Amino acid sequence: MILKATNVGVRYGAHRALDAFSLGFSQGEIVALIGPNGSGKSTALHALAGLTSPDEGEVVLDGREMRAWKRRNLAKRLSFLPQAPYAPDDMSVEELVRQGRFAHVGLFQSFRSEDREAVEWALESTGLETLADRGLKALSGGERQRAWIAAALAQESGILILDEPTSFLDIGHQVEILELISRLSRKRGVTVIIAIHDLNHAMAIADRIALLSAGRLVFEGSPTALSGTGLLEKTFKVEGEFIQSSGGEAPYLQVRVRR
Amino acid sequence: MSLATPRSARRKGVLILPLTISALLLIASVFLGVVDLPAKDILAVLVGGGSDDADLIIGTIRIPRIVTGMLAGAHFAVAGLLLQAITRNPLADPTILGISQGATLTVAIFLLFTVYGASADAHTLYSLPLRWLPLVASVGGMATGFLVFWIAIRNRLSLLRLTLSGIAIGATLHALAMGMIAGWGSARFEIVMQWLSGSLYARSWEHVIFLLPFTVAAVIALPLLHRSLDMLRFEEDVARSFGLSYRLHFSLVLLTACGLAASAVGTVGPLIFVGLVVPHLAHFLAGRRFGMVMPLTVVLGASLVTGADLAGRLLGQAEEIPIGVITALAGAPALLILLRRRS
């Protein structure tokens, strides 16, 4: 376990956004956090990324309590991409990706060759070399999301936490992002923790699934194990059935829409 | 060098025209004025000779006035640039933190006590107790800035909260100041109005010396804060995730902006449009050369105030037109055009 949450509770006023949340993560795996709107996915990711201090419990990264980490050291180990992040209008793709090197370069040092290589690698991995000089404003939704992922990659952090990176994208771009994430995990051993709305995408990409409902973790295990529990249907209040594919892929939830 | 600046984008050519204009304005400001001095006399003073009259006018009136204006202009413009960047609000300027309004109220209170305390007769005209005004106004401006910041910090440093409480507190203080001034009597009304509209009238080397420590502090701080400024343009979560101690750096930049704005308001009065317009103009001229935005802001801020003062002196002759009036009249249309171009 490189990253582990134990009994984490987060409250916003009287509202318990996250309650007794415990989950560990190993090197190189992809874990998908799923759950209805307001179930605490985003709060859990913020706590895991060290952006929200839990009111109860603790988050431990590499054996050290999250609070004991210095911001810059933490950024070398872990990168977080919020949902629909804001970028200054006048920034280009390359400029955004260069910001990802901040943790390595710091406030005063200048860019070294290893920083330039990391930026180039990040642009290349996301297929953005030809768009490097393009302003972020002039990109499609999918390209912009890739630019943000490239900035997170340039951090060379080993753990990537993504909050719904495929929302607002069309199906083609969604698949493109998921394939990119999956490739990174396989080739570079990056640990990916991803909150995602599309259940079937979660089942397809994740090694493990964590299901949240009203701030509590109600399931944790493989996609196949989840399909047998009936929890998805109950948590999301839908009717449907799992369809096993013949190609050895994860089971597929067919949701019934009454009309 | 900024993290956001690739090598190709660091051409300095864009500075040439503003620097030339700035130099021309500077020369014009020294040579032109209400008192018509022959150019020969002025040149003589500048090389260390000249008549006593010319020396007095140039050395103790015109030059300190110009230097005060240039420093104050640069202060306002840089404060505006910093505030616009960290609040991600294109309309931010020193008024958004209540700095100008806080300074106005303390000046009104100070004048009430000193002038009213000296004589209760509303028809007597007093000269402004100018010596203390910069300090009084700066303290009031900074105190208001800190109050607004403190309210925002207590609310998890919400930028919206920062802006809203700044506007609310600013409006309240402004109303209080106006109420005081209105209930005060006509002859005194004028001296506050003169300060309020922004003026370089009778500014001396004392004012330069008052501004300089703030200028020097900012000149030292800004290169150190350069990269954090890039980072602070992102949302808090993103900046922290990139590795920035967001609140620390936000506070440092805000403190710098607050010091620059409050000291400038203190010395020349609230020149609102300078802090608002100049950063937009600098962004417009710099285009994608981000490294040039800060130098352009400094040069343009200094030139705008020098130019406005020169225009005010020449157009109004003995009755000077306050710089605040000129900057607002010229600045408002410029801002509208720039905002249109950007969107």
From TrEMBL, chain A:
<dbReference type="InterPro" id="IPR003593">
    <property type="entry name" value="AAA+_ATPase"/>
</dbReference>
<keyword id="KW-0813">Transport</keyword>
<dbReference type="InterPro" id="IPR051535">
    <property type="entry name" value="Siderophore_ABC-ATPase"/>
</dbReference>
<dbReference type="InterPro" id="IPR017871">
    <property type="entry name" value="ABC_transporter-like_CS"/>
</dbReference>
<dbReference type="GO" id="GO:0016887">
    <property type="term" value="F:ATP hydrolysis activity"/>
</dbReference>
<keyword id="KW-0472">Membrane</keyword>
<keyword id="KW-1003">Cell membrane</keyword>
<keyword id="KW-0547">Nucleotide-binding</keyword>
<dbReference type="GO" id="GO:0006826">
    <property type="term" value="P:iron ion transport"/>
</dbReference>
<comment type="similarity">
    <text>Belongs to the ABC transporter superfamily.</text>
</comment>
<keyword id="KW-0410">Iron transport</keyword>
<dbReference type="GO" id="GO:0005886">
    <property type="term" value="C:plasma membrane"/>
</dbReference>
<feature type="domain" description="ABC transporter">
    <location>
        <begin position="3"/>
        <end position="239"/>
    </location>
</feature>
<keyword id="KW-0406">Ion transport</keyword>
<keyword id="KW-0067">ATP-binding</keyword>
<dbReference type="InterPro" id="IPR003439">
    <property type="entry name" value="ABC_transporter-like_ATP-bd"/>
</dbReference>
<protein>
    <submittedName>
        <fullName>Ferrichrome ABC transporter ATP-binding protein</fullName>
    </submittedName>
</protein>
<dbReference type="GO" id="GO:0005524">
    <property type="term" value="F:ATP binding"/>
</dbReference>
<dbReference type="InterPro" id="IPR027417">
    <property type="entry name" value="P-loop_NTPase"/>
</dbReference>
<dbReference type="Pfam" id="PF00005">
    <property type="entry name" value="ABC_tran"/>
</dbReference>
<keyword id="KW-0408">Iron</keyword>
Automatic annotation (TrEMBL), chain B:
<protein>
    <submittedName>
        <fullName>Transport system permease protein</fullName>
    </submittedName>
</protein>
<feature type="transmembrane region" description="Helical">
    <location>
        <begin position="130"/>
        <end position="152"/>
    </location>
</feature>
<feature type="transmembrane region" description="Helical">
    <location>
        <begin position="207"/>
        <end position="225"/>
    </location>
</feature>
<comment type="similarity">
    <text>Belongs to the binding-protein-dependent transport system permease family. FecCD subfamily.</text>
</comment>
<dbReference type="GO" id="GO:0022857">
    <property type="term" value="F:transmembrane transporter activity"/>
</dbReference>
<keyword id="KW-0813">Transport</keyword>
<keyword id="KW-1003">Cell membrane</keyword>
<dbReference type="Pfam" id="PF01032">
    <property type="entry name" value="FecCD"/>
</dbReference>
<feature type="transmembrane region" description="Helical">
    <location>
        <begin position="293"/>
        <end position="315"/>
    </location>
</feature>
<feature type="transmembrane region" description="Helical">
    <location>
        <begin position="164"/>
        <end position="187"/>
    </location>
</feature>
<dbReference type="GO" id="GO:0005886">
    <property type="term" value="C:plasma membrane"/>
</dbReference>
<keyword id="KW-0812">Transmembrane</keyword>
<feature type="transmembrane region" description="Helical">
    <location>
        <begin position="246"/>
        <end position="262"/>
    </location>
</feature>
<keyword id="KW-0472">Membrane</keyword>
<keyword id="KW-1133">Transmembrane helix</keyword>
<feature type="transmembrane region" description="Helical">
    <location>
        <begin position="95"/>
        <end position="118"/>
    </location>
</feature>
<feature type="transmembrane region" description="Helical">
    <location>
        <begin position="12"/>
        <end position="35"/>
    </location>
</feature>
<feature type="transmembrane region" description="Helical">
    <location>
        <begin position="63"/>
        <end position="83"/>
    </location>
</feature>
<feature type="transmembrane region" description="Helical">
    <location>
        <begin position="321"/>
        <end position="339"/>
    </location>
</feature>
<dbReference type="InterPro" id="IPR037294">
    <property type="entry name" value="ABC_BtuC-like"/>
</dbReference>
<dbReference type="InterPro" id="IPR000522">
    <property type="entry name" value="ABC_transptr_permease_BtuC"/>
</dbReference>
<dbReference type="GO" id="GO:0033214">
    <property type="term" value="P:siderophore-iron import into cell"/>
</dbReference>
